[in-house]
Amino acid sequence: MKISLSVALPRVAMTLALSASPLTLAAQTAPETAADLCVETAGPPNSGVPVSPEAQDALEAALAEAAPYCEQALEDGSEDPVVLFHIGAIRQADGDHEEAVAAFEAAAAAGLAAANTKLGDYHLFGIGPLRRDADEAAGYFAAAAEGGDPAGQMTLGLLHRIGAGVPRDTGRMVELMRAAADGGYHFAQYRLGQTYLTGDGIPGGEDASLGIPNRDEAARYLSMAAEQGNIEAVLDLARIYSELDGPGTGDPEQQFRWTERAVEAGLPDAIAALGFLYERGRGVEADPDQAAALYVQALETGDVDMDDLRGRIGGYEPPWDRATAMAFQVILQERGLYLGAIDGQIGPMSRAAAAALDD
C-alpha cells in the first residue's frame, strides 16, 4: 500500500540593506528554522533497537520535545528526509500508522536508508495498514542495507538466517551482521558475538569457512556491545572470562571488570557473583567483609536465594571461606536475624536468617 504525503519546498527570500558593509553581511547568520530545530532536537534517524530502557526513554523524550518543531517544519513544506523520518516516528508513536508509513515512504524516496528499515519493519510484522509480507519487507531491508543502515543490514541478515523473503544463506547472514556490527549497532555486535561464541544460527554450531566458533572474536564484538550498555553482552563477557571451562581458565581481571559493570546496572545475580569474586580474590584482592556485604545486598533484592547465591560461577556451590562466612553471620546478627554463634559454619540457622533478608 502506497500512501502519498504532499510536501512542498518553500521559497525563502532574503533582503539585504544596500548600506550593509561586507563585514556586517559576513557576521549575519540565518536564524534556525523549524526543520533545523526538529533535526537538532530529535537527533539522527535511528531505526534500531535502543540499547536499554533508559535509552528508549531518552529517545521518546527527545522525540516528544522535537515534535512541535517537526510539525511546524512539515507545515512549512520541508522536504528534509530527516524531518520526514521524525514525523514518521512521531506518527508511529501516536498509533497513526497510515501517516507514519506515508512519512517513511517520503523519507525513503528522498534517499534516507533508515526509513527503508522502518518500512521493512512495517511489512515484516504487518503493522497498521500493511499485511505481513516477508518478500516486500526483504526488499526494503535490502535497500536499507545498500544504503548503509546498520539496523537494516542486521535485519536482512536475520532474514537470510531463516530464509524469509531471501534465500537461506548463513554466509550472507554473517557478512551482513558484521557490517552492522562494524557500523556501530549494539544489537548486531551482541548477536554476532553470540554467533562466534556458540555458533548461534549456524547449522551444527560451527563453520570452519566462516571461522565459527571463535571465542576471541566473540569477546571482541561482545565488548563493543557492552561498552554501549548492552547488558546481555556484559553478562556474556563475565561468563567468557570466568572459569567455566575449568580451573585456571578465563581472565580474572576481565571477569571482575565485566561483573562489576553488571552490578552497576543493578542485576541481582551479578551482585552475588561479584561477592564471590571478592570472597575468592579473583581479579581483585580478597575482602571477606565486602564479599559478605554483597551477598546480603543480593539476597535483599528477593531475586536471589541461598541456593543460588554462590553457585552462579562454576556451576556448583564451593565451600565457604571461613572469614567471609563469619562476616556474613555478623551482618545477619546485626540485623537481628541470627542468634547463633559466629563460627563460620553456614548451616540451617544461618540459612533461615538469610532467607528473612528480603522480608
What descriptive keywords fit this protein?
single chain; 359 residues; mainly alpha; 60% helix; 0% strand; disordered N terminus
Give me a quick take on this structure.
This protein is mainly alpha-helical and 359 residues long. The protein has a domain at 268-359.
- Total count of helical runs of at least 4 residues: 18
- Described by its quaternary structure, the protein is single chain
Shape: elongated
- Helix and strand run: HHHHHHHHHHHHHHHHHH
Structural class estimated from helices and strands: mainly alpha
Largest sheet features: none
Contiguous low-pLDDT stretches (5 residues minimum) are 1-29
Rg value = 27 Å
Kindly, what is the distance between the CA atoms of the first and last residues, rounded to a whole number of angstroms? Answer: 56 Å
Q: Work out the number of β strands.
A: 0
The average pLDDT is 90
Please bin the fraction of helical residues.
55-70%
Strand content: under 5%
Describe the structure.
The protein is mainly alpha-helical and 359 residues long. It has a domain of 92 residues. Helices cover 60% and strands 0% of the residues. The protein has 18 helices and no strands. It is elongated. The N terminus is likely disordered.
Question: How are the SSEs placed, and which strands pair?
Answer:
Layout: H1 22-27, H2 34-42, H3 53-75, H4 81-94, H5 97-109, H6 113-125, H7 134-146, H8 150-162, H9 170-182, H10 186-198, H11 215-227, H12 231-240, H13 252-264, H14 268-280, H15 288-300, H16 306-309, H17 322-334, H18 348-355
